Structures are given as structure tokens and as C-alpha cells.
Amino acid sequence: MGSITLRHVSKTFGEAKVIPDINLEINDGEFVVFVGPSGCGKSTLLRLIAGLEDVSGGQILINGKEVTAAAPAARGLAMVFQSYALYPHMTVRNNIGFPLKMAKMDKAAIDKKVEAAANVLNLTDYLERRPSQLSGGQRQRVAIGRAIVREPSAFLFDEPLSNLDAALRGTMRLEISDLHNQLKTTMVYVTHDQIEAMTMADKIVVLNRGNIEQVGSPLELYKSPRNLFVAGFIGSPRMNFIEGAYAQSRNAKTVGVRPEHLILSKESGLWTGTVTVAEHLGADTFLHANVDGFGPITARVDGEFGVKHGDRVYMTPDESKLHRFDDKGLALGNAVVAA
Amino acid sequence: MATQNTKTLARLMMAPSVLLLLVWMIVPLAMTLWFSFQNYNLLDPSSDGFAGFFNYEFFYTDPAFFQSIWNTLVIVGGVLLITVVGGIAIGLLLDQPIFGQGIVRILVISPFFVMPPVAALIWKNLIMHPGYGVFADIANLLGLQPVDWFAQYPLFSIVIIVAWQWLPFATLILLTALQSLDSEQKEAAEMDGANFFNRFIYLVLPHLARSITVVILIQTIFLLGVYAEILVTTNGGPGYASTNIAFLIYRTALLGYDVGGASAGGIIAVILANIVAIFLMRAVGKNLDR
């Protein structure tokens, strides 16, 4: 059991209104990712849920019970911190067992639970070591272990992978997803990395300046972003935004087209441009081209499409996958009305 | 090969300072050792020459000897207890965000800048004086008999004065240690259900272990030789009640004019200091290795 409800939650630090007003429903067993650029309030929101910060207004409910004024420990949540926040002078065993010791559980029961958690996380051989003798990934797993043994109603992750190198980040991403499938416990995960958000989430909450821009499944956000911000934030490389005559011809202020929805050719197409940089990733190539009329455009093409700096290319957008936005930046729907 | 050269060069470069320090230490020690085996009394220049262990016997049989060793240990132990406990307490308070934090911190540290004799005189005449001291005023206000601190509790009074002087040092070191404690660790402990007391025992205290060790070791070095505070307040009395080893050596040398006996006392003090150091390193030294 682990549903979390936020009702008109707001947070101010002195003069600064970090979170103006947020309503959000997190269902039991969901993997929810808060994503947004630095300073968008996503970590603050997580800390409000955890109880590490007090809300300035609104209510927080966990499993339908009001916990707005409850102490962090009383909320039945477990948190994994960005720096792991392991206790440096304790062994892995004592680190994982600490919350149970604080709950005054007897020694034998603690040992049993710690060993079970260590087994799940492949930490059995490291139980007697101290955190300083572990690698980054192992420390991360200890931090997760410390969260698991409490059997919380929900896990909170605060950018847990940002201190790991790229390869390990990929592995840990899989391990956390795997863990979620095993435990089926609610997880709330904060990240600024949209790849982590897309790959792990059941539900993504896109935040910008303390406001929720859109809530939805990864594919919903990808296919139908509600506004320019979400359109620009979700997807890699970024969506191209085109204004001017072309956009007006499609009855919109701005038209967005994803790099993977451009059809490229060396012979003919709607637009022509000069390649500035070609990033060869092997299977794919990201082409950055200067298109005559509206400037830089990024396109994603097959790795076999051999062009280099200075070449002329032709591109045509896939009209069925255009995103159109009005002058307020809100999406107009995908249907294209050719004028 | 390069490392070998660097090492040799490094040793060569360090040699002058090492040599200087060595000479600085060895010469006075050797002279003290030499005098301690000589008949050398300024009141009796005629008797000189090798004295054997007579000076040691003389110092050892001094009625004040054992009491002064005990007093030395009481001063060291008492001051360490007050400064470490008090330092942690004040450090915890100063770690909280308060209005005028910078000024408060400077005020807390300021006793350390007052010279020991000056501090002792202020305590003697303005604070602990049975006639016009602040403590006497407070006692009168409460309708109590004022305490004559230096007559009734001479050693305790000195412990208080010295502790007052060293409290800022302990506070400063422990405060910086407290500030270096990762806030996410504190929050993690909070999430794990540890209350303030448990956070202190399981998180803050282990984090402070190394700094507490540093405070204990450094203070012990200075506290073994407390002298000025005793001289200007109790002058070692009443009787020998507040005489420590350092003060006993001073009495022997400059009041008894017995350089040989005082030198023997000095050597005994060195041995005592080493015994204390061995015990200390056994007890708390392992904290420095982590």
C-alpha cells in the first residue's frame, strides 16, 4: 500500500516561491518520475513528501491519511539520497540495519532482514565492510538496502544515479526497475535526466519553475506534449522548433518536428541545408544542419547515410508527426490543416 | 630511480629543520638531566659535584610530591572533561542558525586570546573574590554565605579558570567538525527514525571522535604544565592543595634555589608526561588512523 496525494501544496523560502500550487495523485505501486531542469523544484517537492521540509500551504496524504505535519520517520517512507548518505563509521550490516535498530527490533530479526536485503542486492560478501571500502555502485545498493528493510509504503529517490559513471548508471537503472518489478512498491524518483525518466517511469511528472507542466506515461509525453516546454524537454536530441511562414502555413505560431521525424535525402526535399556537424553514433547519425530560411535543425538519420561537414542535404518533415503550438506555447493537436 | 632521487633530496632538504628541532629539544633535556645529578644549590655554592640520585630522592620525599602528581592529573582530567563536554554542547548550539551568529562566535572564542595570568587575575579579583566578586554578589542576592573560592576549593577554582580558557579552543575545533557533518546523513538518520538523542549517539559523536581526540591530545600537552594561573591565584596553597608538578618545580628552583632538585623534578615530570601520553595514545590514538 502506498498512494500519495498532494493537495494544493505550496512552498516558499523567504520571498522565493519555489512551488506555487501543486496537485498530484500517485497511485499504489506506481513508478513516478519527477523530471525537470535544475531549480525547477523537483527535489523540494520530494523533500516535502519526505517531510524533510515543511509545506507552506496545502495537504499531503499518504494512503489517504493526512501526514502534512507528521515527522519524516512517521510517514512510513524511505529515501535514497544523491550522496547515498551512508553512515561512514558503520559497517554495511549496521548501515542497513540502522532503521530497524531505531525501531527497537531485536537483534536476530534485524540480522535476518539485513541478510535478506543483502541477498537481493548482491551485498552478502560486503556486509562487514565500511562504506569507504565500497565502489560507487555498491554504496548505492547499500543505500537502497537501508531503504528496503524498512518495508516502506513508498521509496523516494533523489537523483540517485547522478554520481555514477555512464556505464554504471545504465546498470543501476535496470536494477532499480527490476527492484520495482519485484517489490511492486510505489517509487517516486527525481532526476534531471530525461533518459532515466523515459526508461523507468510508469508516469512522468514534468516540472518547470515549481509548476507541473504535464503528467503522463513516457509515450504520451513523447507523442503528445502539451506545450512547448514538454516538447523541448522530452526526447533526445531535442525537438526542432520552426516559426514563421512554414508554421503559419500550418495554422500555428510554432511547429515542432522531432529529429527522427525528418526524412533526409541527398537529392530532393522540402528544405535544403548545409551540414555543420555530423555526430556518428554507429547505428544513427545526428546531423546538425543550417537550413536555408530558418537556421539550425537537428536530424536523426541512419548510420549509413554518409554526409560530412559542408555537404548539402534535403529534408522533408513527416507531416503526420508534426507538433503545432499556438502563440501561448500550448499544443494545438496533431491534425494538420494544410492551408 | 627518480623516486629514489626525490626521496634523497627530500631528506636532505628536511635535514636542517629536523636538526634544529632535535638540538632545540636535546640540549635543554641533556642539561636538565646533567643538573639533576649535580649538587647545585644557589644558597650553598660550596657543595658541588656529582650527587648521584640524591636530588631525585630529595624531590621524591618532598611531602608535596604525591599530592602534586595527583593535583596535576586532577587539573588535566577536570579541564578535559569540562572542555570536551562543554565544547560539544556549545558547538551544537553555535551550529544552529541564529541572529548575529558571527559576533556570537567571536565572543565565544575570545577567552582564548586573554593571557593566562590576566585571565586568572580577573577571575580572582572580579569573579571569585569573596568580598566583591560576581559570585559573592549572586550568593548575597540569594541570601547565601559567599564562598571563598581559593581558600575552600583551591584546586577546583583553578580547574574552572583553566577550563574557561581552553573551552574556546575545544569549541572551535568541535564546531568545525560539526559543520563538516554531511546534512544528508542527518536527514537520512531522521528518515530512519532516529530522534535527536540517537542521532547524537550514532551519528554526531562518531563523526566527532577524531576531533575530540585532537582536542584531548593537544590540551593535555599544555595542561600538564599549568603554572601561571596557580602563581597569581593560590600560589600553590593553601598548603599544597593546589600545587601541581610544574609549580612544585618552580618552588624548588626559584623559592628553594635548588637547581639540582628542580632539575630532578623536571625529569620526573618528563617521565610522567610520557606515561600519560602512552595511556592517551592507547585510549584514543586509534581514532586518528581512520
From TrEMBL, chain A:
Pfam families assigned: ABC_tran (PF00005), TOBE_2 (PF08402)
Keywords from the named record: ATP-binding, Cell inner membrane, Cell membrane, Membrane, Nucleotide-binding, Transport
CDD domains: ABC_MalK_N
CC annotations in GO: ATP-binding cassette (ABC) transporter complex, substrate-binding subunit-containing; maltose transport complex
Taxonomic superkingdom: Bacteria
Molecular function GO terms recorded: ABC-type maltose transporter activity; ATP binding; ATP hydrolysis activity
Membrane topology field: Peripheral membrane protein
Family: Belongs to the ABC transporter superfamily.
Entries under PANTHER family matching the protein: MALTODEXTRIN IMPORT ATP-BINDING PROTEIN MSMX, MALTOSE_MALTODEXTRIN IMPORT ATP-BINDING PROTEIN MALK
Protein name as catalogued: ABC transporter ATP-binding protein
Organism: Neorhizobium lilium
Automatic annotation (TrEMBL), chain B:
Keyword terms, alphabetized: Cell membrane, Membrane, Transmembrane, Transmembrane helix, Transport
Chief place of localization: membrane
InterPro entries documented for this protein: MetI-like, MetI-like_sf, UgpAE/MalFG_permease
Lipid bilayer topology: Multi-pass membrane protein
SUPFAM superfamilies reported in the protein's UniProt record: MalF N-terminal region-like, MetI-like
Superkingdom of this protein's organism: Bacteria
Compartment(s) of residence: Cell membrane
Record field: transmembrane: 12-37, 69-94, 106-123, 155-179, 200-228, 264-284
Family statement: Belongs to the binding-protein-dependent transport system permease family.
Protein name (Swiss-Prot/TrEMBL): Sugar ABC transporter permease
Taxonomic source organism: Neorhizobium lilium
